[in-house]
Automatic annotation (TrEMBL):
Name the record gives this protein: Mechanosensitive ion channel protein MscS
Domain Mechanosensitive ion channel MscS C-terminal stretches: 264-346
Domain named Mechanosensitive ion channel transmembrane helices 2/3: residues: 144-185
Record-annotated Mechanosensitive ion channel MscS domain positions: 186-253
One CC-aspect GO term: plasma membrane
InterPro entries in the record: LSM_dom_sf (IPR010920), MS_channel_1st (IPR049142), MS_channel_C (IPR049278), MscS_beta-dom_sf (IPR023408), MscS_channel_2nd (IPR006685), MscS_channel_C_sf (IPR011066), MscS_channel_TM-2 (IPR011014), YnaI-like (IPR045042)
Source organism of the structure: uncultured Campylobacterales bacterium
Lineage, broadest ranks: Bacteria, Pseudomonadati, Campylobacterota, Epsilonproteobacteria, Campylobacterales
PANTHER family in the cross-refs: LOW CONDUCTANCE MECHANOSENSITIVE CHANNEL YNAI, OW CONDUCTANCE MECHANOSENSITIVE CHANNEL
Length: 364
């Protein structure tokens, strides 16, 4: 047997119904496609990147960037398709067709999913109709919803192609479907809770809120839940349905911040001193640049067990926590000066013991 006959026999040798010739050809085609993918990335894509950088619009730059990975995977799908056509195993053709179709749907969904991240300006213009303050929250909600829709549709298309009837499958679940519906009840409630939050606008990302025993700054409003960063710097994930059922105190919407306290001075303080103290404190607060002028109350309103009690009620101009503490410290120090300058002193809980008569020495 000469070399040519040996080569023909080797190429015609069959493995699982596939000739060696077809296996070699499939390998060569697969390698060529992968090589072409590298050339495509280094030349055409690189050229496109340079081209879109010259335009004034940033969207085309982002579009080329986000489509790179799906395009790379598309070459792999093309290579698999050509390999299938070359080897052509009749019994497995149907399976390979389903796999290739599924991969194509995955690539399309992948590209759409990535594109949604880069067309947020469209949703931003729409969401601003709900109010400038909530535009980013509405935008995030729409984008997350569309991503979920893309994933669900991709799954349904793939399932239908594999011969799975989704409607019949859900209907055939019977009690299992009922159990699934009951399990999804909370998810649906959270979805409607998020819609209520976006429509009623009780808070937005960045607001400091208090709802029940939850106190912190809103970081993200999602479809199912809201993330709140506490002042201990931990993150609490709260279901939206729970938030809509709780009274919400939005501290960020304060236009001024309250200071409320009492001053207890000793019973030895004279009436004239009390009047001067009240007058001086009011004057100090009215002239203070960081105190709101709308509502300033300083009154002697209560006799306590061991003190004369003055009620002080006023507001700071700032609502920022750090600045508020600075203003409060400043007013407290000025009040101490006023008390001291009027010859009075602060009282503290005490009791006075009066002895009516001392015992005689002979009685001791």
């Amino acid at each position: 047997m000469n070399l040519m006959d040996l080569l023909k026999e080797t190429l015609n040798y069959s493995i699982l119904g596939i000739t060696t010739q077809n296996i070699v050809l499939a390998f060569v085609v697969f390698s060529v496609i992968m090589l072409f993918r590298k050339i495509f990335i280094k030349t055409i894509l690189h050229y496109l990147e340079k081209l879109v950088k010259k335009t004034k619009n940033n969207f085309d730059d982002k579009l080329v960037a986000i489509l790179q990975k799906p395009l790379r995977f598309s070459f792999f799908i093309l290579a698999l398709f050509l390999v299938k056509e070359i080897v052509s195993i009749d019994k497995l053709n149907g399976l390979f067709d389903n796999i290739l179709f599924s991969l194509i749907i995955v690539v399309i969904s992948w590209a759409l999913f990535n594109i949604l991240n880069e067309i947020n300006y469209i949703f931003s213009s729409f969401s601003k109709k709900f109010g400038q303050d909530l535009s980013s929250d509405i935008e995030n909600f729409i984008l997350k919803t569309l991503r979920v829709v893309v994933i669900i549709f991709a799954f349904m298309i793939i399932a239908e192609h594999w011969g799975i009837n989704i409607s019949a499958f859900i209907a055939s679940l019977g009690l299992g479907g009922l159990a699934f519906a009951l399990a999804a009840k909370d998810t649906v409630a959270n979805l409607f809770g998020s819609l209520v939050i976006f429509m009623d606008r009780p808070f937005k990302a960045g607001d400091w809120i208090e709802a029940g025993d939850i106190n912190g700054v809103v970081e993200d409003i999602g479809i199912r839940s809201t993330n709140i960063r506490t002042f201990a710097k931990s993150i609490i994930t709260v279901p939206n349905a729970k938030l809509t059922d709780e009274p919400i105190n939005n501290w960020s919407r304060m236009n001024k911040r309250r200071i409320k306290h009492r001053l207890d001075i000793t019973y030895g303080t004279k009436v004239a001193q009390v009047k001067n103290i009240i007058s001086d404190i009011k004057t100090m607060l009215e002239n203070h640049p960081d105190i709101h002028k709308d509502q300033i109350m300083v009154y002697f309103d209560e006799f306590r067990a061991s003190s004369l009690s003055l009620f002080c009620y006023y507001f700071t101009v700032t609502t920022e926590w750090d600045e508020y503490l600075r203003v409060r410290e400043d007013t407290n120090l000025k009040i101490m000066d006023i008390i001291e300058s009027n010859g009075a002193s602060f009282a503290f809980p005490s009791q006075s013991l009066y002895i009516e008569k001392l015992a005689n020495k002979q009685d001791v």
